[in-house]
Amino acid sequence: MFQQRVSLSVFPWAPQISISDLGHDENYDLFGEISPRGLSSESLKRLPRHVIEENPNGCGESTICTICLQDIEVGDTVRSLPRCSHTFHLVCVDKWLIKHVSCPMCRRDV
């Protein structure tokens, strides 16, 4: 089995890490340390969510979830972020927020 060692020559104090040591579920920073994850499940539960009951724009134009690029339609469950009011499909934004603590559109903290 071929194993590659990664050394950050720009930062000689940084430890060598093996590519096989990096998991897909873990985020590492520049120094090989596990970086903080996104929101906890408790924090996600506290964020507002609702079901779309009428056309979001009210003028016949559709609103698009900028994560999956699909229309947000009547009957879809969505989450609107409190600080920026951006709205996304619930499933799409929750996947994002598990790994990030900011809005996927404007990067404002949630």
Automatic annotation (TrEMBL):
Keyword Mitochondrion annotated: no
Major site of localization recorded for this protein: membrane
Signal peptide: none
PROSITE patterns (UniProt xref): ZF_RING_2 (PS50089)
Pfam families, A to Z: zf-RING_2
UniProt key word tRNA processing: no
Superkingdom, natural source: Eukaryota
Keywords, sorted A to Z: Membrane, Metal-binding, Zinc, Zinc-finger
Domain RING-type, chain residue ranges per copy: 65-107
Subcellular location as annotated: Membrane
GO cellular component, as recorded: membrane
Membrane-spanning parts: none
UniProt xrefs under InterPro entries: Znf_RING, Znf_RING/FYVE/PHD
GO molecular function annotations of the record: zinc ion binding
Protein's name in the database: RING-type domain-containing protein
Source organism of this protein record: Spirodela intermedia
Taxonomic classification: Eukaryota, Viridiplantae, Streptophyta, Embryophyta, Tracheophyta
